[in-house]
Fold:
Amino acid sequence: MGEERKGRRNRRTFCGRRAAAPAACLLFLAALAGCGGNGSDETGTGGGPAQEKAAGAGKEASVVVVMPPASEPDAGFDPAYGWGAGEHVHEPLIQSTLTVTKEDLTIGYDLATQMEVSEDGMEWTVTIRDDAYFSDGEPLTAADVAFTYNMLRETSAVSDFTMLKEARAEDEQTVVFEMERPFSIWPYTMAVTGIVPEHAYGPDYGEHPIGSGRYLLCQWDRGQQIILEANPDYYGEAPRMKRVTILFMEEDAAFAAVRAGQADVAYTASGYADQAPAGYGLLACETVDNRGFNLPAVLRTEGENGRPIGNDFTADVRVRRAISLALDRERMIAYVLNGYGSPASSVCDGLPWYREGTEAVFDPQEADRLLTEAGWEPGADGIRVKDGVRAQLEFLYPAGDSDRQALAAETANQLREMGIETSIRGTGWDTAYEEAQAQPLLWGWGSQTPMELYNLYHTRPDTGLALYSPYASETVDRYMDEALASSDLEESYELWQLAQWDGTAGVSAQGDCPWVWLVNVEHLYWVRDGLQVAGQKIHPHGHGWSLISNVDQWAWER
Amino acid sequence: MREKTLALLLLSLGLLLGAAFLGALWEEEAAVVDFTRKNLPPCREFLFGTDWLGRDMLKRTAAGLSLSIRLGLLTAFAGAVIALALGMAAALLGAWADRLVAGLTDLIMGIPHMLLLILISYAAGKGAAGVAAGIALTHWPPLARLLRAEAAQIRTSPYVKISEKLGKSPVWIAREHLLPQLLPQFLTGLVMMFPHAILHEASVTFLGFGLPAETPAIGVILSESMSYLMTGKWWLAVLPGIALVVAVLLFEALGQCLLRLTDPKGAHA
Structure:
């Protein structure tokens, strides 16, 4: 259908990548296709051309948003297969959640009206509201909540639910979670877990989701667009945006769409930020979408399958601290991100569980002193040498990610000034995880839950080392275990902070420094003049859905 | 006429060797990242401009061409040797060998070139080795077909028949009678295979199945430039693209000259 449409209606020629042509005809689809479904032969799939847009009347309540192709949920809108959860966490929109994260990333209520945890942290009791209905008219009860969580514990391919023993509906409005182990940050898990209906859940749920959230899925053309419509029966404040059309395009096609005035909001990258398409403004959103690299903190050994684990150079804590001190993050931001970023000190900058006072500093003298103290003295050609071994590091970056390639190159340049022989190499995710066990890799993290700290720094029972980069600290493990066991969420924030730095130990740059954080990348969007994008939470990793987490509160200026 | 051809031949050979040499010399400098000079349009200091990492595009292009030429030399030679071996085998080893070679040639020619190239490159682990294997194993059929026909014709000539009657082995006949006569065709075919090899190396790399992203290769340069065209950085694609076309045309000219100089039938044309 797309091709035919292109021939007939789209006279514009778009240059760009393969995706550009189909994406361009899509724009026409987006502008024309409505959800009313008056069966026009134009679109063929049930949507009819909506004249609203042309007439200008519908503009008040609809918005077209462009996201990167990677944001499209492959398995549909099923929370068990990554919708809202997994690597790129965001609010599920179509489904309701028990809790929500507020603008300061503390916990608020959505379906829940009350929440209690037992003294030992082994039982959570949540009362839910009685006025929530699924879009098929059935009421949402505690049984649906229990079903959702039990189902996710069994089947979730992306999220960890092993801490949950069983979810049980006490009555219509009360659900009890029995835990395997205390898990104080359970409300953060609840904030991204969409509740599915027990009576209408099946293998095709992902394509035909039924939820109780702010929006209904009205149309999904795989690889092209998603159209959401406001849920008329939503229990909360009625969404101000009645229709949200989401298109998936590559960076250059997204920019072309903005230049042609065919999208209201489109993601973009810092390389485009100096352009100024008429009628649009640049929105830079603060994020914890950080970039940093790991430094293996153990001596090099052979792993199980003969692959190396650890790195002799970075096993010395003084070397790791020196590397962090040697990096001028402001220069990096100016060079690589054209200024659209902030220096990163941790994986959770600006979140309630971030330890104030652990800001990464740039101090080349101290870096030099530490390296010299560790025995690495500059040799004849300026490269540091210790016992005849040259100071060498190869930085890996995911091939095809130009920002990370540039960050790796700039890191390598800055460390070379410090007397370390550096190089960079692009790699694929099929081998990157294993390679990162022995050498630094440019990663991107950042999530709206403290669990991220646990995932990066806590040791695994099987290896005794952290998962993504070898590191082990009993002190840090203990703080995080205590934080999870805490019965009070507010109190647990403090323990998460102690894990970063307690005055003598921790994972921050002045502590063990097993990861060096470089920058928080600001998420950039072109926004059409007149569109009010409501206040944004600090965005997590993933340049997509987080922007429209509150699309229901957006509005057009009159 | 002969002098003119010879001069043209030497000129193109000189230019190509020069590019290969310069590129190899600049290989390290081509990788230098310097953000203080990023995204510069072509100017006196940087004739081809710089990219988003501040790399000198002239040096990168030269390094890319040099890599292409060296890779092309290897693969074209390997491909031509395969073609020669198959062509002579078809002529000398009897009817079954002839049928086998003809069938194999048709089979390889029947599969879309790019597809087979990607498959082999991917199976051989991508990277330089993958690309080399891919090009060497896909470019021989046209030349093999030509050499086979040529060899079959020589084989029917009286002196070959006499050699056979005298009990000479097929290897002896191949060495003494076939090889000297096939040499001009072989050399020309070898040089003519170059442009294809270079273009296909660039294409398969452009599509992401070839050389790794940090190598200065024309395919990598061109595919990277795609993301920057939209913001008007035309020099990233246009100048390396022209350089590639020029290199291919020079090889073409080189091949034509060589053909004119070595082919006895064309000597008086």
About this structure: Chain A has 14 helices and 26 strands. The longest strand of chain A covers residues 164-171.
